[in-house]
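Task card 7
Instruction: Convert sequence to structure tokens.
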Amino acid sequence: MNLGLTDKIIVVTGGAKGIGKGIAEVLAKEGAVPVIVGRSEADNNIAVGEIEGAGGKAFAITAELSNPAECEKAVTEVVLRFGKIEGLVNNAGVNDGVGLEKGNYEKFMQSIHSNLVHYYLMAKFALPHLIRSKGAIVNISSKTAETGQGGTSAYAAANGGRNALTREWAVELLKYSIRVNAVVVAECYTPLYESWVSQFADPQQKLAEITANIPLEKRMTTAHEIANAVAFLLSECSSHTTGQLLHVDGGYVHLDRALVYEAATMLAN
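Output:
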């Protein structure tokens, strides 16, 4: 399907690694120009080089998104370079494990800044340009907002905020024909995920336990599967879709509980 994204200027925060990199790669394959915004200049440049090596176009801006001034600066740089912004993918963030019992106020607020506040700031600074282009916003969110995980209060709260902002902005921006949606991620194997699972005594056993609970095909979602949904939501192919929380998770959030209930009912009978 031709998504009609050729030469569209789309900002992707955290686009140098993991899910963000997958999004940037898919957008480039669709002919768009992903503008990767992230804190590591080296990682940003590597990602751009790989995209260009594959025949695509990309651009990178180095910014620490937990700093409001750098969010504004990043948007300004995009507009100075390209003259427009036609899409925003808020993706940057990390499950930093700031819990209730072992967390504290300072760490909680730092995590909220790292995982939620820049979603608002990037949208705020990009908004005048999105109004002109009738662009779209896609927020990347996590299942932790709905299922909980334990030991990660700040990240769960941030993702609850991402979901709420998605619905709120969809309402506020109707008058500009700006569509706002979210893609909710469950188990997607990224470098950060690999780092987390490596902490267990038997990482492969832990992975096997996790994938056993993913209903569709008992496997992880790939970054490109997330990216394909993002590209669709940015495109005119989803021209009447807004305010939606799209779960690209192999049925993890909804189906696994239904299946457990079904199995328990069968055993009871």
